[in-house]
Design a protein that fits this description.
Structural class: mainly beta
Radius of gyration: 16 Å
Strand order of the largest sheet: 6-5-8-9
CATH architecture of the largest domain: Sandwich
Helix content: 10-25%
CATH topology of the largest domain: Immunoglobulin-like
Largest sheet: 4 strands, antiparallel
Number of strands: 9
Shape: globular
């Protein structure tokens, strides 16, 4: 399955490969072997949904990572623990939770320190968590079981 910039290949054994055809026309670098940018993730999800519609079975891999802040991400640490997010930062920060269609579900500002965020009110599925502090921003994909 492909669009004008990306190609997603699903093999019979269930493995996948995902390529940026503009930057990597020879398909040398499988993007699924690294964290995806927000643009890459958006294209991956689009192609997964199209492939699912075509073949009739779910086609997306769970746990595909996203990284929008490629520099040192030490300003915040996020752990997903049984429906509760554990978040730690040395500086004040803002967290926004989005569904996979891009709808903002929640935004909250926190002081520096350790915090817990209850995810039990949300349905099972994938979410994007965006953290901001000053000029820094990080987006992380969260799987709620």
């Amino acid at each position: 399955m492909r669009n004008s910039e990306y190609q997603l290949i699903r093999f019979d054994n269930g493995t996948q490969e995902f390529y940026n055809l503009v930057n990597d026309p020879l398909q040398q670098t499988n993007l699924l072997s690294q964290n995806l940018s927000a643009t890459e993730l958006s294209n991956y999800n689009y192609l997964c949904n199209e492939m699912t519609n075509l073949v009739g079975t779910p086609s997306c891999q769970a746990g595909v990572g996203i990284q929008e802040h490629p520099q040192d991400q030490s300003f915040i640490e996020i752990y997903n623990l049984n429906g509760t997010l554990s978040v730690a930062s040395k500086t004040p920060f803002e967290l926004s939770l989005f569904d996979m269609q891009g709808k903002r579900l929640k935004t909250q500002t926190f002081a520096a320190g350790n915090h817990s965020i209850d995810m039990h009110e949300y349905a099972k599925g994938m979410y994007l968590l965006e953290a901001k502090t000053g000029n820094e921003k990080m987006t992380q994909k969260i799987l709620k079981d």
